[in-house]
Design a protein that fits this description.
- The protein has a domain of 90 residues: Alpha Horseshoe (Serine Threonine Protein Phosphatase 5, Tetratricopeptide repeat).
- The longest helix is centred in the C-terminal third of the chain and has 20 residues.
- Helices cover 57% and strands 0% of the residues.
- It is mainly alpha-helical and 171 residues long.
- The chain is elongated and about 85 Å long.
- Keywords: Membrane, Transmembrane, Transmembrane helix.
């Protein structure tokens, strides 16, 4: 592979990883597919690109493509890539757990809100009704704290003094 192609592969690979980390899975799949088409698949870099492509496929909802690529990676000449492919395939083929509805939080679609509506703008003419608090009110009230001496400390202190005194007297 010449230097120009290698540079192009690495650029597409970085683009795919960055898009994946930003949650842009379709863009990630496209960039990683370009990188995978340009790189020699049996090299270590080729294996890394394909592993990232598997995760991008899964994140984009393309589970069958992800499984097929994992099955191909099980035959990869690089040991670590082969192991990662096996682990990913195991995860992809694992049964989906049922999720109870009360475990999930629904996020409302904010795309329907008009951005120009002053009711939804942050800090737009809304006066705070919460009174400002001074710094002293944030401190804990000393009247609610237990300021009594713990009798165990006195017992332990007397026992330590007697032990040290006894050791000095015996020596």
């Amino acid at each position: 592979m010449d230097a120009e192609t290698l540079e192009l592969v690495q650029r597409e690979y970085r683009t795919g990883k960055d898009a994946f980390e930003r949650g842009r899975y379709r863009e990630s799949v496209e960039a990683l597919q370009k990188a995978s088409a340009l790189v020699q698949r049996n090299t270590r870099l080729g294996g890394e690109v394909q592993i990232w492509l598997v995760t991008a496929y899964e994140a984009a909802g393309m589970r069958t493509e992800a499984r097929e690529l994992c099955k191909q990676l099980e035959q990869h000449p690089h040991y670590e890539t082969r192991q990662q492919g096996k682990r990913l395939l195991y995860i992809l083929e694992a049964p989906q757990l049922e999720r109870r509805a009360d475990w999930l939080t629904e996020i409302p679609d904010l795309g329907a809100m008009a951005e120009s509506d002053p009711q939804y703008r942050r800090g737009a003419g809304v006066k705070s009704t919460k009174p400002k608090t001074s710094q002293t009110s944030e401190l804990e009230d000393l009247g609610s704290m237990n300021l009594q001496d713990n009798p165990f400390i006195w017992v332990a202190l007397i026992a330590a003094i007697l032990t040290v005194g006894g050791l000095i007297w015996l020596s």
